[in-house]
Amino acid sequence: MNKLVINADEAVKDINDGAVLMLGGFGLCGIPENCIAALVNKNVKELTCISNNAGVDDFGIGLMLQKKQVRKMVSSYVGENAEFERQLLSGELQVELIPQGTLATRCLASGYGMPAVYTPAGVGTEVAEGKEMRSFNGKEYLLEYAFEVDFAIVKAWKGDTDGNLVYKETARNFNPLMAMAGKITIAEVEHLVPAGALDPDCIHTPGIYVHRIFQGANYEKRIEQRTVRKK
Amino acid sequence: MPLTKEQIAQRIARELKDGFYVNLGIGIPTLVANYIPPGIKVVLQSENGLLGIGPFPEEGNEDPDLINAGKQTVTTIPGSAFFDSAMSFGMIRAGKVHLTVLGAMEVSEKGDIANWKIPGKMVKGMGGAMDLVASAKNIIVAMMHTNPKGESKLLSHCTLPLTGVRCVRKIVTDLAVIDVTDNGFKLLERAPGISAEEIKLKTQGKLIVEGAIPEMSF
Fold first, then answer.
1. Which of A147, A195, B143, B170 has minimal Cβ neighbours within 10 Å of its Cβ?
2. DSSP string over B63-100
3. Min CA distance, B91 vs chain A (Å)?
4. Are B62 and A95 within 8 A, CB to CB?
5. Chain A environment of B134 (Cβ under 8 Å)
6. How does pLDDT run along chain B (218 residues), one tens digit per residue?
7. Which chain A residues have a beta carbon less than 8 Å from that of B66?
C-alpha cells in the first residue's frame, strides 16, 4: 500500500476536463488550498465542483472561477463572490443551490453506501420541484440522492501515511463527509506523520476512505471575516 | 419609538430558558447572544460544526480554523464541542436544537418564511436556512416590520420564493411582538409609543388585536 504522493500536482495529475469534484471547506475555512492551486496551474476545464461555498473573488474556488475552469457549481451559499454572481447572471456558469444539511447528508449517504435519504429541508419550496416525496408520521420528506463523484479533495490538520485523518476545530466541516464520498479521495494535510503516530481513538476519517495523501505547503489560511473584541 | 436592532435582540433574549440549545442566524439574531439573561445557561450552535460559541477573540488571537456560520472568527468556551456538517444538521433535523432565531424578507400569516432569494436580483443561496426551518421546534423571526420602501413584510401570502412553510411561531419586529396562530398574526406586545392601529396599518396580513396590548419596556 502506498498512498503517499509528493505534492498537489501529483495528487491531481489525472483530474481532467469535465471531472466531477468535491472540495471540502466552509467559506475559506478548511479548504484544500494546495490542490486548488494545482488545479489552477493545470488549467483543467469544464469542472463540476461540489462545495458548500464558491470561495471569494481571489481565493479558494474563486481562483478557478477567475480562469473559467468551472462549468457547474453545486453549493448551498455563494454570497461572497462577485465574479461568481457575474458568471451566473451572464449564463457562463451553471449553479445548483441545495440546502446545506442536504448537501452534507448526500455526502454522508455516499460514504455510508446508502443510495438516498429522506429530509424535510425544502418541502414546499422550489427545492422540492420534481422530487419524490413521502410522508412519515404525518410529516413530508424529500428523497435526496447520494452523490457520485470522481474525486473528493479534502484538507486535514494531521494525517498519517495510511491516510488516517484528524481535523482541527471548525475546519472539520464538510471535509470528513466528502472524504467518504470520492471514488478517489485526495487528502492534503498540514502535518503528515508516520502510521502509528496518531491515537487510533482520535481519528476522524479512517484511512480506508483516503487514496492519496500529501504534506501541504505554504498555507495562507485566509480569514474571511476577521472579528475581534477589545483587550 | 420603534425598537432598535439591539432592542429587538434584547426582547428575543427574554424567550431563552436555562438549558436551551439555540441557533442564531446572521444579522439581528447574532446580537441575541449579548443579552442572555443572567443565571441561565444557553449553548449556542453554529451550523458549521460548533456547540458552545464563545465571544470574538481578542486582537492577535484570531484563529482561521475557528469561525462561526457567518465566517467570523470566534472562540470556544468551557464545554464546547466540534463536529462535522452532517452531525450539525443531524442534531437540527432531530429536533435537539430548542430554538432557532433568524431574519426574513417576508413572513406569511400561516407562518411561511421567505429569506433566501430575490429572483433576478439576489442569488446567494439558502445556506442552512431551509434545513433549520424545516426541523426546528421553535422558530422566532427577527426583522424590521416593513422593507426600506415602507411595504409590510408581514403578509397574507409570501411573494418571494419560500424557505419553508408553516414554520414560524413568533415574530419580533421594530414595532411589535407577534405570534403566528392558526387564525393569523396575533399582536402580543407593542414597541413603546407605537399604537396597535399603526401596527395594524403596517401589517398586510390578517392581524388579530384582542383587548389592551401591553407596551414593551427596556
1. A195
2. -TT-B-TTSBB--EEEEEEE--HHHHHHHHHTT---EE
3. 10
4. no
5. 119-123
6. 999 999 999 999 999 999 999 999 988 999 999 999 999 999 999 999 999 999 999 999 999 999 999 999 999 999 999 999 999 999 999 999 999 999 999 999 999 999 999 888 777 899 999 999 999 989 999 999 999 999 999 999 999 999 999 999 999 999 999 999 999 999 999 999 999 999 999 999 999 999 999 999 99
7. 169-170
